[in-house]
Amino acid sequence: MRVSYSPGYYAPIPHEHIFPMRKFEGLYRYVLEQDLISDSDIIAPSMVDMANLLSVHTPRYANGIMTGNLESKELRRLGLPWSRKLAIRSRLAVQGTINAALMALQDGIAGNLAGGTHHAMADHGEGFCVFNDVAVAIKVLQQTMWARKILVIDCDVHQGNGTAEILKENENVFTFSIHGEKNYPFKKPPSSLDIGMPDGTLDSHYLDTLGDALDDIFNDFEPDLVFYLGGIDPLESDHFGRLSLTLNGLYNRDRIVIKKVISEDIPLVLLLSGGYGPTLKDTVQAHALMYKAALELWK
């Protein structure tokens, strides 16, 4: 299975910051150590072309990220301190998702060891999301006619507000978000299908709800490509999640999604999205479950 990764996915932020910036490098090392991915299947992206970035983001915002010319309130909303390396890593990660989509169309399944930054809006970033990689990738794929009908399955515990807002007028995109109903963002632009789960939701209810929703979606929508945002923040141990999934529940969630897409014979793109475990090791190992499930099912 080919995946996108670059050492440039890391950008320095204060050590005490809640965002686990080291998880990208940690996951890269872990999937190699566990033989989930081979070194020859790691594909390093370049920075996304500005023209492709501007197919989604406004020139003022995109240029502001690249130059650091942003107001303090914009940086507070973004939640990350600006640096030139942050701007570069954000463009690398977007191209990583575009590359993963193209590799999935060729191979059947591929991933990005980053991505799923679903809170970024056209004219601003928020929730630690600088650019909306999924929206940019979809625009590029549709403009170049690599894919026409695209499904986004977003299982991050936080609703994919940026993706829903940016793609709301795109009739060939179906956005599905299953998330914590009372969690961030508090204003949730409607996805094609939103399912809000109550605080404390356990494995069985979550998995049953997800499986039923996927059956309904695939009965009505026939995509050329699927993006899966496998955020690990529904875990009970997550700093921000408020749901109560176990590691086994998270692993079965990934299996349900991946098995369904594979059974429909549709190319699949795997993306990390969010997760804030008790330790970096916990975060990395939870993210790796998606690749473990994909490897087992794809074989």
From TrEMBL:
GO terms for biological process: epigenetic regulation of gene expression. The keyword Hydrolase applies. The keyword Endoplasmic reticulum does not apply. GO terms for molecular function: histone deacetylase activity; hydrolase activity. Coiled coil: none annotated. Pfam families: Hist_deacetyl. InterPro entries: HDAC_classIV (IPR044150), HDACs (IPR000286), His_deacetylse_dom (IPR023801), His_deacetylse_dom_sf (IPR037138), Ureohydrolase_dom_sf (IPR023696). Keywords: Hydrolase. Residues 17-281 form the Histone deacetylase domain. PANTHER family: HISTONE DEACETYLASE 12, HISTONE DEACETYLASE HDAC1-RELATED. Belongs to the histone deacetylase family. This is Histone deacetylase. It comes from Halalkalibaculum roseum.
